Amino acid sequence: MKKITLFALFALFVGTSLNAQKVGHINSLDILEVMPERQKADEELQTQATQIRKQIEELGKQLEQKYVQYQGEAKDKSQQENQSRMQELEAEQKKLQELQTTGTKELEAKQNEKYKPIVEKINNAIKKVANEKGIAYVFDSSQQGVLVYIDEAKAVDLSDAVKKELGIASK
Hints:
Radius of gyration: 30 Å
Shape: rod-shaped
Strand order of the largest sheet: 2-1-3
Structural class: mainly alpha
Number of domains: 1
Oligomer: single chain
CATH superfamily: Skp domain
Largest sheet: 3 strands, parallel
């Protein structure tokens, strides 16, 4: 009977200690915001976005000028010529829409390309800090739906430690 009781207490102790996992949280948006790499990436993305926007604006102005010109000359042109000009304008309008779509896709791809190593660097720092602090679970408090409640007194905020690991000064 003593052996069973001791075994039960031992099992209870081991089970309880195994379930007592430390939980921490970070704010990934706060960390990302202060990353020098993110700031550089955003500058490059802004430059590319400005170039694409200028191309679209220029093509749009050209299209509008042609439309005004063709409207003014329509009375002096044959129906067939006006129809041909209308098809030309429609083709250029389609080209403008394709440029907008392509530009958006290019910017999204460039953003993914620029942000991927930054996110990987943050994730590696989070893993390293969590391992050093014996944290089993890390939640991101900046993502809605991921963390419903946090008891600040009991939780461990790893954001500053992750920033330190990345060599970034905390605010």
